[in-house]
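Standup notes
- DV: blocked on the single-chain target, sequence here:
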Amino acid sequence: MPGITEAQWNMKAFSKMSRLRLLEINNVQISEGPEDLSNNLRFLEWHFYPSKSLPVGLQVDELVELHMPNSRVEQLWYGHKRAVNLEIIDLSNSLSLVRTPDFTGIPNLKRLIPEGCTSLYEVHPSLGHHKKLQYVNLVNCRNVTTLPSNLEMESLEVFSLDGCSNLRS
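- DV (later): unblocked, structure below
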């Protein structure tokens, strides 16, 4: 990959950074994911994130923006999480992503970008009840077959579905 550097790093180092609020890792590919991240994170941008999900113990209630394009994430987290401040989720071109999270714990989400997530097949039904969501980009999410049956997204301005070739009505 041009411009990408592979690095070895002890992932336990992140567990000692308890006051970390911003983490940005770009143009570096790390072979393993962190065991833990700061619960104080407000901004997380990690291109090529190497794990199948965020660390199990991570509390995401302070997080405002989450950008993890080209990651190996299969799903963001397991179970229900409260992320009341989270406004942006960008998982574009995360080819292993299979499902979106439950959106009921993310009441302030404004932008959802799983564009190019070719393994994505499940969009959580709670997305359809999201009142503040303004932008959804599902372009080239070709394995998505259904969308939530009730779409009550009153703030929605852009809903891109180009390339969702298996979508059924």
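- Follow-up: The beta strands are 5-7, 22-25, 28-30, 43-46, 65-67, 88-90, 111-113, 135-137, 158-160.
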